[in-house]
Every structure is written in C-alpha cells, then in structure tokens.
Amino acid sequence: MNSTQPATGERSLHVLMIAPTSFFSDYGGHIRIFEETKVLQDLGNRITIVTYFKGSDMPGIDIRRTAPLPWHTDYEVGSSRHKIAFDFYLALQSLREGLQIRPDIIHGHMHEGALIGGVLARLLRVPLVFDFQGSMTSEMVDHGFLNQKGRVYSLARRLENTINNALPQAILTSSNQAAQLLEHDFQVNPSKIIPMPDCADTELFNPTVLPLPEKMILRQQLNIPDGRLIVAYLGLLTDYQGTPHLIEAAAHLKRMEEEIHFLIMGYPNVDYYRRMAALVGVEDHMTFTGKIKYRNAPRFLALGDIAVAPKLSETEGSGKILNYMAMAQPVVAFDTPVSREYLADWGAYAPVGDSISLAEAIRELAHNQARRVELGKALRERAEKEYSWKRAGEEIQNLYRRLT
Description:
Layout: E1 14-19, H1 28-42, E2 46-51, E3 62-65, H2 82-101, E4 105-109, H3 110-124, E5 128-132, H4 136-142, H5 151-166, E6 170-173, H6 176-185, E7 193-195, H7 212-221, E8 229-234, H8 243-255, E9 260-265, H9 270-279, E10 286-290, H10 297-301, E11 306-309, H11 319-326, E12 331-334, H12 337-343, E13 348-350, H13 355-366, H14 369-386, H15 389-403
Helix pairs in contact: 1-15, 2-3, 8-13, 11-14
C-alpha cells in the first residue's frame, strides 16, 4: 500500500491496534477497523493490528495473531464464553507486541480491546484511544448472553463503566447517538468523547459498478425471476439484526401478491433462516447467498432496487446503511437513533420490530420509482459529503498527535 508522508517536521506514528475479533471478516465492525487502518496508513502512519487467530489476512496490513486455543479453534460471532479465553490469549499477544514495537499510541476496538489496551498503555506510558462501537452490556443482552435482571449483568455494567471512564484518554464513537449514550448513561466527561461515525468507501461502493448486461447475468446466476423488484440486505444473519423480520415482511408481501424478491447476503445461520423462510412459504421469494466478500459486496448490492436495514439494537452502529447510501439505493430501516442519524429525512422508516410496517414501507417504495430515484440520489450525495473516510482519517491522526 502506498502511503503519503507526514507533514514536514512530523514523524510518522506507530499505532498498536487491538481488535478482539477474528479480523478480517466481511461484516460490521471489521469494515471500520479495515477502513480506518487503510486511511491512517495512507496518511503515513504505521499500524500493527493484534487480533484473534482466525480471520483473513489483508494485503498491505500488518496483522499479528494469537495462538489458537487447543480446545476450540472455531470462533463464534458475537458473545461467547469462549471469548474469555480468546481475550486472555489476545492480552498475552498484545503485551508481547507492545514490548517489542513500543508504539506511540494504542487504539483499542470495542470494550475488550480498550480493557487490554488500557492496562498495556499504562505499562508502556502511552495514550489509549478507545473505539466505541456500542454498549458492551446492551450487546450481550441483544445476543441473549446476559439477562438484564441478573446479578452478572450488574457486574458487567460496572466493568463497562470503569472501562469507559478510567482507561482511555479519548473515545471515538461510531455514531452521535453513541456519544450521547456515553455522556448520559455512563457520565463520561464530554471532553473525552469524539463522535467519529462510520463512513463509506464511495469509490468502491458506486452505483455504476455493475453495468446492466452484467447485472442481468448475475440475476440469472442467483436464479432471481425476471420482473421482480429486488430488496437487498447485506450483513450478519441473526435475530438481533432483524433477519426473522425480513422473512415475516417477505411473507406479508407475498400474501399481498407483490412481485418482490429478497436478496439476503450474509452469514452465519444461513441454513437455519432458509428453513424458516420455507416454513412460512417464501423460499421462492428469498435468495440466501451466504457470505459475500467485502470486495465483491458492491456488485451484489447493485442488484437491489431497495435496501433494507432491520437492525433492532438501539446502541450499535449500522455501517451497512452507509454502503447502501453510497450505492444510491433508497433505504427502508427500523426507526432507531442511528438509522435517523445516517438517513435523516431521506429514509423510509418503520417502528422497531414491526415486520408488517417494514413490509408496507417496502411496498410503498416498490410502487413509486420516482421516489426511489430521488431518495437514492440524495443519499449518495449525503454519503459523499458527510461520511468520507479520508476526512475521518485526518481527524483521527490529529487526535493521535494531540495525545502524543
């Protein structure tokens, strides 16, 4: 990867990123880590990422992996008791790399990365930047890993509060709503909080990426019937991401005799949701592709006439929406603060968890091509103007320099 040199008189910074996940995987927070790393390297910084054993290597990125666990080499998406062991290994690997490279700054992703990074930062006497992508305890509840009324929840909440307040010198948030959450729910000093919403690679995600002849070929390869409008989803397939609501929406639209096809791109649990779709009789109106590589995502998304974002979480970011926007696609989303933040007046919204309202919002757009074009154009312009990775990278680099 070619990197521009730092400004005259400024030395390049060596950043140790701690990523408590199987980096790189083609979804969610991995995209934020990848894009941040790319743009920071382009600005002349050196980035070393410490992460779990499993994951895809990415050209031009320095990735240091933990050893595999002897009893469990399959890394699960989301919360898992195995993650305690994963993170112990990650802490050991981070200590080893930190002592070897002596970074100028530590950048911890998610709460586990901030906890490990906070201890290491104090040992090395360097600043910690915490990349906050949502409430730890809220996510664990969403995943069904914690009971909000249980004793363990209160302990986890206190740990989260300590991580938020005591360890980092600065916190980057993936949305403005997350910044408000830190200030109001965890009483974090506002001077430490820097809203840094997810961004979109508007060159990679471009509505012209797939010419019409290739689009028709890809439709045929996916066995999507001619004449059907396509609703596209790209992301994890889980209950908290709203996958069952997509199936329920498809069933409602089929009952209304709408010629609408759902293109569901992502993983895991593909076979589980295929069976769910078959049980309600919409297997002929839904195509599940399985995992789509990030570099191939724009070509598949280009098939969509409408994009959909049914995520239920009120605290996590939703970077997929920004990619939809960059593709100039109208977006139907559950009405969460993050969806409103990204889409503003240019989204089509349904009450959170209401599958019928989600289907009706899709149906309304399906019958109004002019409105689809208008929304798509406005969202593409918004993505280019408001959500640029280049600008975000410059702001992160300026923060690094202030702290060091």
